[in-house]
Amino acid sequence: MKLIDEIRIPFKNPRLREVEKDYLERAKRRFFLHPRIPLSWVLKLNEAGVAGLRVGYVLIYCFVLKGSNCIKLSKYLLNAFRISKNQKSRGLRELEELGLIEMKINRGRQTQIKLLKVND
Q1: Which domains does the chain have, with CATH numbers?
Q2: Which of 112, 103, 100, 102 is closest to 42 using CA atoms?
Q3: Is the model's pTM score more than 0.85?
C-alpha cells in the first residue's frame, strides 16, 4: 500500500483584506451597551457619584428603548428603579456638570433631557 503525499499550501482568502478592513472599521466604532451609547460616554459616567451613576444607567436604558436623543424621565420609571426625586435632581445635576446631558426644565412638567456627545 502506497501513502499519498500531501503538499501544504498557505490558505489565502480572497476576501481577507475586505474582512480585515471591515473589522478595523467596527473596532473604531466601539460601544459598550448599545451602538447608540458610545463607550466614551459610559467611561465619563463612571466619574459621577452614586446618584449620577444610578440616574445615568436609567438614562441609558431609556435612550435605547425610546430610540430618540431627547427623553423625559417620569417619576413612575424612577420609582421602578427605586430612585427618589432628590436622587434624580442630584444625579441630573452631576451628569450635566460632567457634560453628559443637557436639561431643559419646564416648571410643572417633566424635565427634557438630551444626551450629549463626549469628546475623547
Answers
A1: 31-115 (1.10.10.10)
A2: 100
A3: no
